TrEMBL record:
It comes from Phytopseudomonas flavescens. This is Uncharacterized protein.
Length: 82
């Protein structure tokens, strides 16, 4: 399932995509957003500094997850619609 994550950081609206086999859980959404917002290699360091709480790190960075929406893939051109 492809999903569009809508979130804001310090009031600026941002978007990220996530592909999973099934409906994504909140941890997958949080880690996707953090990996997009933190420089490479800082995710594990940042998580340790935030007393082990990913949600606390998200709060400290001023990130608010607004919505997670399923994204429909386009129909291939050779496939007929019903």
């Amino acid at each position: 399932m492809d999903c569009l994550i809508i979130y804001s950081r310090d009031g600026e609206r941002r978007f990220q995509t996530l592909t999973t086999r099934f409906i994504p859980n909140m941890k997958a959404v949080e880690f996707t957003v953090l990996s997009a917002e933190l420089p490479a290699g800082h995710l594990s360091q940042g998580a340790n500094q935030a007393s082990g709480s990913v949600r606390e790190l998200i709060r400290q960075l001023g990130i608010e997850i607004i919505d997670v929406l399923p994204v429909r893939k386009s129909v291939p051109p050779d496939e007929k619609r019903a």
